[in-house]
Amino acid sequence: xxxxxxxxxxxxxxxxxxxxxxxxxxxxxxxxxxxxxxxxxxxxxxxxxxxxxxxxxxxxxxxxxxxxxxxxxxxxxxxxxxxxxxxxxxxxxxxxxxxxxxxxxxxxxxxxxxxxxxxxxxxxxxxxxxxxxxxxxxxxxxxxxxxxxxxxxxxxxxxxxxxxxxxxxxxxxxxxxxxxxxxxxxxxxxxxxxxxxxxxxxxxxxxxxxxxxxxxxxxxxxxxxxxxxxxxxxxxxxxxxxxxxxxxxxxxxxxxxxxxxxxxxxxxxxxxxxxxxxxxxxxxxxxxxxxxxxxxxxxxxxxxxxxxxxxxxxxxxxxxxxxxxxxxxxxxxxxxxxxxxxxxxxxxxxxxxxxxxxxxxxxxxxxxxxxxxxxxxxxxxxxxxxxxxxxxxxxxxxxxxxxxxxxxxxxxxxxxxxxxxxxxxxxxxxxxxxxxxxxxxxxxxxxxxxxxxxxxxxxxxxxxxxxxxxx
Amino acid sequence: xxxxxxxxxxxxxxxxxxxxxxxxxxxxxxxxxxxxxxxxxxxxxxxxxxxxxxxxxxxxxxxxxxxxxxxxxxxxxxxxxxxxxxxxxxxxxxxxxxxxxxxxxxxxxxxxxxxxxxxxxxxxxxxxxxxxxxxxxxxxxxxxxxxxxxxxxxxxxxxxxxxxxxxxxxxxxxxxxxxxxxxxxxxxxxxxxxxxxxxxxxxxxxxxxxxxxxxxxxxxxxxxxxxxxxxxxxxxxxxxxxxxxxxxxxxxxxxxxxxxxxxxxxxxxxxxxxxxxxxxxxxxxxxxxxxxxxxxxxxxxxxxxxxxxxxxxxxxxxxxxxxxxxxxxxxxxxxxxxxxxxxxxxxxxxxxxxxxxxxxxxxxxxxxxxxxxxxxxxxxxxxxxxxxxxxxxxxxxxxxxxxxxxxxxxxxxxxxxxxxxxxxxxxxxxxxxxxxxxxxxxxxxxxxxxxxxxxxxxxxxxxxxxxxxxxxxxxxxxxxxxxxxxxxxxxxxxx
Lengths: 471, 495
Known about the structure:
The complex is a heterodimer of chains A (471) and B (495). By secondary structure, chain A is an all-alpha fold. Chain A has one domain. In chain A, 73% of the residues lie in helices and 2% in strands. Chain A contains 20 helices and 4 strands. In chain A, helix 1 packs antiparallel against helix 5, helix 9 packs parallel to helix 12 and helix 11 packs parallel to helix 13. The longest helix of chain A has 32 residues. The radius of gyration of chain A is 21 Å and the shape is globular. In chain B, 77% of the residues lie in helices and 3% in strands. Chain B has a two-stranded antiparallel ribbon with strand order 1-2. In chain B, 58% of the residues are buried. The chains are: A mainly alpha (471), B mainly alpha (495). Chains A and B meet through helix 17 and helix 18 of A and helix 5, helix 6 and helix 7 of B.
């Protein structure tokens, strides 16, 4: 008898999606209702997920599905950040006329795919989860279908993502061919002697995953897709798939392929250095905030990967802390973007921030905190994220990676403080609207306060991950 | 448990800043009084700390230690004879900066004072942190308020200067961060007291020393990475320049004593010739550059580089006189350069020009100002009877013990210092009153008179009677040098 209790989050989400579809079909003009209802569903899903709290790892469905405290933590992070994203983007969605019943339902399906991905312990299950989340995201990227940029970004994302999925599948088949199993545990057992076929497979799988987290050199789609998609979708791109894909990185590399650490470590270090440096350099010339944050997120993924390349439990834990702080900073940043609104029009150019501090002192203050934190200046949370990563990196004497990473933060600091310069030193412009929803304001205030006062007690976030043991 | 006096020193300005945050920004008098009140209270606490400080002990006193990041870093602060003086310097200068904003800051006063108070927190934190990570946090955190002070309230080229300041300093200090983390993995702790006892494996010392040096050299600033300083000084508002010159530069000098020399004695000994050479270049070269400036603030900024060259020279002699001289020179330079920047601020507020050629003959219209400026000029060039003399004299004495040639070249710097300062004074104060605008200029108002007189009095008082300072630090310096020599001898025996 399979214990279905442990996948109740997934079951709950699937049933809710079906229910929402039915409501959407039979009730007219119910988009707003469906949207709000799905926010509540996410909260319930979160509650169910936290309630699981497995003491020991649990294997389900012939060992192809795994629940332990690590996957539960990541699932909670995914659910809570989706909740926050949907809460803060409601006004944006409404005013850009993309509030249709499909919108929240697609987000929920994408989340469902991610949850499956995170828990998967089998290549097939993993691929099913990955495709579910990607397919939903293709549609979301093109959701503003009258807008040429949005359609372009959806198409671009679809074509490139399909290519990367193809590579990934090819890698999976290679791994299956040389280890004669798709189950992670069996692959681990069967691949004791290192064979080139498996290494090729790993590289192909890593390419596919690197595409999802926009690691250099598989990042080309990110700026265009981030820029073209509606901002409410961009924020999802910037956070959720990355959390899920990085978790899969951890599950993959430290699960079936742990023995081949020496082989894949070089690949991860390469991805990490490339992303850190390229993300920092390429963002300098950007004029649009969404493109800028795309490059910035490329750079941040480089740091998270640096933590994974270390090969210790601390490295993994510190990467997860990095992800948590990264998502807080990103949600805060995008809440600021949602506030740059005048007469139902949203602004997303760097020059639109000009002189913001005179008209909107509080908004620009929190924006400044967020930007300094993204740049990694102490004592803000972003500094600690990097500090932990480099603590793990230097423990293994990987000084080259540490020095390159820290030098790239100096380059990256340039474009972050350029935004601060625009806000604080330049001439002011027209005022923006002030009628933001309560949820949006709360999210901005709370997240920037967390960033600001994180240093008072860093243990709070660290405690979440301190009992995670992968290796 | 004792009252956490050091933590309250660190926290009080931040609490004041938080309080200011909630005051309506139109209530200008209220804002000024609150910030002034907070900073004066902080000054009084620091004086109290000095009074109850036990001068017959070289140990760290008033040490507070708490778990901060579990199993990793402790929040640990404390003072010894060296750091307490820098804390007093900080708490002494900050109220004066706040007093000076009356005339120089026209817009966003509230934000400015918040930045100044936050800066005070961070500066005090730097001087009393006894853990490398905590030190790094305070050291780097200072970038944010200073960047804003230069960028928002600065002059015409403020953006360029603010960026240069920020990126130079950040670039220097990221390497220090790597070194700090490496020390944690090499020695197992980042607690400074523990590290003093344990010592750091000699094979790593040189690289670690270089990493720390890269940060401190930018901040000191040493030639050739000093170029951000003139720009930052020129564009920063008066209070910003004062904080920068009086306290921020001292963070690096303090860092050299506490960390570079204290933690890596073997590497420090190894790099002495290197430090001597770049200190000498700084002294001679920047003095010559200062001679050619036509901008008053730039001239004083270059003179700061030269004076800090003396400081590094003195610290790396590892003699009692040299190190004491270095510390005294830092305190003295803190007061004198603050006074000089205040003085430039006074005339800049009236005429909006920093060019030396726009002035001349000020003695006719501003007699009080001219007298006080005379004191500061003499203090800067090191006339006996001012604090500047004691510092330079001790440093040169220590250097003579080490090397005659180096001391001889450094003495040239003293002459050049006299040249550019006296020439500056002559061009600004004496001569014909040619600029018509200056006819209507008014002499010091009460506020400015108070600030400048206080600074002038302390320059002269401590110039004649330096004992309060030297009694405080001499034992710590002695012990510090003993430990240094012990470690060096141990190492040489083992070789």
